[in-house]
Specification:
This protein has 873 residues and is mostly helical. Among the domains are: 521 residues, no CATH class; 87 residues, Tetratricopeptide repeat domain (Serine Threonine Protein Phosphatase 5, Tetratricopeptide repeat, Alpha Horseshoe), CATH 1.25.40.10. The chain has 36 helices and no strands.
């Protein structure tokens, strides 16, 4: 049999079946394809809405309303896809490793819901439900994007929506920064960190903007292609608004001084360049496919136009890119310099020193791994790793905050783990994924990222080998895939030091970019066999999709007089926020209790609701009921340090020592040097005259806290509540030392308190002088008891000076101390002042004490005789 010659072709395309880059063969219904534009238009609108919406004065920096809009939009998009499928539009999800990785990821999230109650008292907490709600909505958007973006023009809608959404965030943030009222929405709010824009926090806003600005890269890349193919007017019409938008977005990103977002954006560009380079190399390799004998005999195949000799997305030599590259550099130059010149003006620079640094300094600081910024993050990361190793199946959605105290690697002298501050996120989404969703969830996430990179490389390869008739559309699809890779890596780069995947908008953008890459894979795939082409769905399937979407919307938003899930959540959120604010205000605890109980009725699985309820009840004097509320909070969050400390304090108030000691033990098991818990125990010891136990407990804590104070790790605001609690601990120790006449401890601890200074807040000068006088007098007294007279003299002199024209006893003490140090003129002066203040009381005391000193034989007897004679005059 003669050997059949084969015809080698990089891409086998039958002329009659040639498709657009949209991946859909021409068909009789193509005249109605405009209906399909409704899906990408809907995605674009959703991107703008979630970026813009803001509801002031609720917790977690305005994130919940964005999540609710995301879920509503996802439900409507699902219903829209079902409606279009019912109208015979053919939709098909092309399977790929990326799609299967996304399936595994959402399966891990759902599986975690079965694990989560084990750590929250057998109940599924509100935060686990929030996580599931957010990921289901975001994955629904992924599905809609993957099947609904079918034509290259659809990408323009989505790209435009992302660019506009980013501009909304950036312009509002710039307006907030520079007080440009026209940029600000009518409803004003206060950002936690300026310029926080619609996110209330500049770091959260930055992680969204860097995920949206790749839309500008896509537009500029297409403009370069059009310029190179002699379509200068079209290129300029696109590149000018794209470059202007990119400048605005980059300027705002620089204003936020969010280094993790900068790093993520840079890594995204590196990843895209790598994918482009690999795709270009693969496109130039010899094709692996060989035409069969039957295909060689097919006249259509034989007559198909050969593939273009040139390959690549731009199809020019590198030297030809010099001019457009320089033009783009000019269009985007100086953003860093401008941002440095007009950087944020902080009203509280002590709390955020980054605001005073230049851009080069900020970049350099990214590598200062020994700084506090990294130190406390490393502590959280080490603790997260311990949790992953100990519980490989994960602790359940929303449970990182519950798991963290259990596996904390540094409990003592850790200012990031106190009753005032207990982390709720890992500041590294990958480790938080592992803690909450287990190894399988973490591997699914890594598989998703690897698949996105691989599909992008394949998309570039296929687009680079497209024939000239399809080259423009194929390039746009490949650029969109590369842009989405930039956005995904930007989010993940930021996630190495932050928590974008714990927030609704970055999670939405992450899944949307994944959906765009999956859609690009479908659009650039070789034409399928006729049997494999997308076909209209069965009517039951389309109807079921519509029902799922609309049914989900009714469940979320309600219908008629019924209240949906979102309405209940927002009602509870407002109740919590109002109650938290009113509980702190004098005379409004009753109102706060009504508000928080409405929140409890909606969300009994929110530990914070029960905690605020306890504070309200305590303010109203209902201490037992407050303790019950705290235990309900602890059932949902067993390792909540603040709750255990409050149980201890409330129990001490009602003399329930068993409850108090149990709570103190639980608090000290979480943090053995927790001073508020220790002070509660010390107060109990002193009340029961257990002075020796109190003394020993204080003596155990002081060396560690003194070393902590001197280490440079002490909080920069001088500790705030920490310093006050430590001084209270020392005060308990001073009381015990005084009772037991332990003069060395008394002197040491009084000296520490005195050196820390006397607080100024709300105190008169007389009050502050009195405290200084009493402390210096006691230090002098203790030093005299220790027979260290030279050390006692300056303290005795200071106490006498602070006494001014009062307190003859302090003048007497000074005179005695001066005499013991052979300072005879000082002793005579002190005695003279004491006699002038109270002659009747001072003369016998001075005489008696000088004689006691004379009997000791340690000073000049003759000089003492003179002093005694002077006193007797």
């Amino acid at each position: 049999m003669a050997k059949i010659k084969t015809k080698v072709e990089p891409v086998k395309v039958v002329a009659a079946q040639r498709t657009s880059a949209g991946g859909t063969a021409n068909d009789p219904d193509d005249v109605t394809s405009w209906l399909e534009d409704l899906v990408p238009i809907g995605i674009a609108i959703l991107a703008i809405v979630v970026a813009r919406v803001v509801t002031p004065n609720i917790r977690d920096l305005f994130q919940l309303p964005k999540q609710l809009y995301l879920a509503d939009g996802a439900a409507l998009l699902v219903a829209l896809v079902g409606a279009l499928a019912w109208l015979k539009r053919p939709y098909k999800l092309r399977t790929s490793p990326l799609v299967w990785s996304m399936v595994l990821l959402i399966a891990a999230v759902m599986l975690s819901l079965t694990v989560a109650p084990k750590h929250t008292g057998g109940e599924l907490s509100l935060f686990a439900r929030y996580d599931a709600h957010r990921w289901l909505a975001a994955v629904a958007v992924f599905w809609v994007a993957a099947i609904g973006i079918r034509r290259s023009r659809h990408l323009w809608w989505v790209t435009g929506g992302l660019a506009i959404g980013g501009l909304v965030v950036a312009l509002i943030g710039i307006g907030e920064q520079h007080s440009i009222q026209d940029f600000l929405p009518a409803q004003r709010w206060n950002s936690i960190t300026k310029p926080g824009s619609t996110f209330g926090n500049r770091n959260m806003a930055a992680q969204v903007v860097v995920a949206m600005l790749p839309a500008c890269y896509v537009a500029m890349a297409m403009a370069v292609r059009w310029w190179l193919t002699k379509r200068a007017v079209l290129a300029l019409c696109l590149v000018i608004p794209a470059a202007l938008s990119l400048n605005i977005l980059l300027y705002y990103t620089m204003l936020t001084v969010t280094r993790s977002a900068w790093a993520g954006s840079f890594l995204g560009l590196v990843a895209a360049a790598t994918a482009w380079g690999l795709g270009a190399v693969l496109a130039r390799r010899a094709p692996a496919s060989v035409a069969t004998a039957d295909e060689q005999a097919d006249p259509e195949v034989a007559s198909a136009p050969p593939i273009a000799a040139k390959v690549g997305l731009l199809r020019v030599k590198l030297i030809d890119l010099l001019k457009p590259a320089l033009a783009l550099l000019v269009l985007t130059a100086g953003v860093g310099l401008v941002a440095d010149r007009y950087k944020p003006v902080s009203e509280a620079t002590e709390r955020d020193e980054k605001l005073n640094r230049s851009v080069p300094q900020l970049v350099k600081s990214f590598f200062e791994f020994g700084s506090d910024h990294y130190r406390w993050r490393f502590t959280m990361l080490e603790s997260s790793w311990e949790a992953i190793k100990s519980e490989p199946m994960g602790g359940g959605a929303g449970n990182w905050r519950v798991m963290f105290p259990k596996y904390l690697v540094q409990r003592e002298k850790n200012e990031m783990f106190t009753i005032a501050k207990q982390p709720i996120r890992a500041h590294n989404d990958f480790l938080q994924f592992g803690v909450e969703f287990g190894w399988h969830g973490l591997l699914a996430l890594f598989g998703l990222l690897g698949s996105a990179l691989w599909l992008t490389v394949r998309n570039v390869t296929r687009a680079s080998r497209a024939d000239e008739a399809q080259a423009d559309d194929a390039a746009l699809v490949a650029f969109a895939s590369l842009g989405s890779l930039v956005g995904i890596v930007a989010i993940c780069g930021d996630a190495m030091a932050s928590f974008p995947l714990q927030l609704p908008v970055p999670t939405f953008l992450f899944c949307l970019h994944m959906g765009i890459i999956a859609a690009a894979d479908s659009m650039l795939a070789p034409p399928p066999a006729p049997a494999d082409r997308p076909k209209p769905w069965p009517q039951w399937m389309a109807t079921a999709t519509v029902v799922v979407g609309l049914g989900g919307m009714v469940y979320l938003e309600g219908f008629g007089q019924s209240e949906g899930l979102h309405g209940r959540w927002m009602r509870a959120e407002h109740g919590f926020t109002d109650a938290r604010n009113h509980q702190k205000q004098s005379g409004r605890a009753g109102q706060a209790l009504v508000e928080i109980r409405e929140a409890v009725a909606v969300n009994p699985d929110d530990f914070q609701n029960h905690f605020i309820e306890a504070l309200c009840l305590n303010s109203l004097g209902q201490t037992k009921e407050a303790i019950d509320s705290l235990h309900r909070s602890l059932n949902l969050y067993p390792n909540l340090l603040n709750a255990w400390v409050n149980v201890a304090m409330f129990s001490a108030r009602i003399k329930d020592k068993k409850s108090m000691n149990d709570a103190i033990d639980r608090a000290l098991a979480l943090k053995s040097d927790e001073l508020v818990a220790l002070n509660t125990r010390l107060s109990d010891f002193l009340g029961d005259s257990r002075h020796a136990e109190a003394l020993a407990l204080v003596a155990k804590q002081v060396p560690g806290y003194q070393a902590y104070r001197a280490s440079g790790r002490w909080p920069p605001d001088d500790g705030g509540q920490l310093l006050g609690s430590y001084k209270q601990t020392l005060g308990h120790g001073i009381t015990a030392a005084r009772k037991l006449e332990k003069w060395q401890q008394l002197v040491d601890w009084q000296t520490i308190v005195y050196d820390y200074g006397i607080p100024d807040e709300g105190r008169s000068e007389e009050s502050k002088r009195k405290e200084r006088r009493e402390r210096t007098a006691e230090i002098a007294h203790g030093l005299r008891k220790l027979n260290t007279m030279p050390a006692a003299l300056p303290w005795a002199r200071l106490a006498a000076e602070l006494a001014m024209d009062e307190f003859a006893d302090l003048k007497i003490s000074y005179a005695l101390t001066a005499a013991a140090n052979s300072k005879w003129e000082d002793a005579r002066h002190g005695a003279q002042v004491a006699i002038a203040l109270d002659a009747a009381g001072s003369r016998p005391k001075l005489t008696e004490q000088f004689k006691e000193l004379q009997a000791g034989g340690s000073v000049d007897r003759a000089q003492l005789d003179k002093l005694i004679a002077f006193v007797a005059q």
